[in-house]
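Hi R.,

Quick one: here's the Variable surface protein Vir 12/22/24-like sequence you asked about.
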Amino acid sequence: MQTQERSNKFEKVNKFNKSVLDKISAYKTYEEFNNNKDCYKYCHHCKSIYNFEESYPGISDFCRMLVRNLHEIKYSKDSKGRCGYLYYWIYENAWKLFGPDWNKIHGKEPIVSLFNVGYNVINELKINECFYNYDTKISFEEWTEKKDLHDYFENYDSIENIIESFKKEGNNKYCEYFTYIKKMYKKYIRKCCRYYDHYNYENKCSDYFKCDRIYYPNEFLCKLRCSSTESVDSSSKIVKNRVSEEQKGSGHLNSEMNTNSLGRAGLLETQESIINELMKDPFYIFSLGGFTLLGIFMFFFLFYKFTPIGSRLNKSSRRKKEKEYNVKKEQRKEIVYSNSENRNINVPKGRVRIAYQSS
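And here's the predicted structure, written out as tokens:
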């Protein structure tokens, strides 16, 4: 009876989001996770769970669905994205089963056995992106807010593509949804995002929040022409306020801090992006090749000019040229002498021109 009541509570919470996001295929992932299709194939993974079925009815089905979902994620195109949905799906089903007992049984059976089944399958299938640290002390309200933010950010692009269709159906429920998301956004941006300027930031909640200002929901509220009692804040203003708060908290921000404080993964990703863009630029490719050749020539010039080996090579080359010059000089003398003794040759009047070949 208690399990059914808890399920009804979740249905009431989810109904609001479903009314807005039911057109988006990614959101239907939760429905796919909840069906019993092919679960019988994974019974052997859940043998350690069956003993708890009497105390926690439905735990066996939950276990089999978990194993089935992990196998399907392994072979999906977007395994990382589906792992994010799975995380919140596990929380929801755990609350339906254990309710207020969630914290009491943490660290004990059956929750340990259930999570161990999942971790063993994750290791077996090598889908490390599905590993999460499950916080069993989180409140139902906080979990709901994080799940709603996760679903909003994950479906942002799809919402943007179909926002025009929302106008035709009437704006009330959609305005209510985006007003709620805006409220959650403003609440969690303080916790999750540390901005160093308008474009550089550190995200502490990447599993359910995105700090890029393009995701601020005010754009959707404007497109739907929603009337709101709240002031209409731009994303730039929200970020500017956070930057100001960070500056007050830290005293000042200098360029060194701005560079060094960013998350390493974010810096690497930015650097990789810059490199990729540069490599696509024909001028950059041409310049890179030119500078490479210039560098090679400069290296050999310095090597030849200033190193002992280069000096010896230079002396050897000069000796060789001097020797060749002396040989040619002697040959020219012999030719001139031979011509002067040849009486059969008519020497023209005027000056004698001798071709001189410079070395």
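The longest strand covers residues 193-195.

Cheers,
M.
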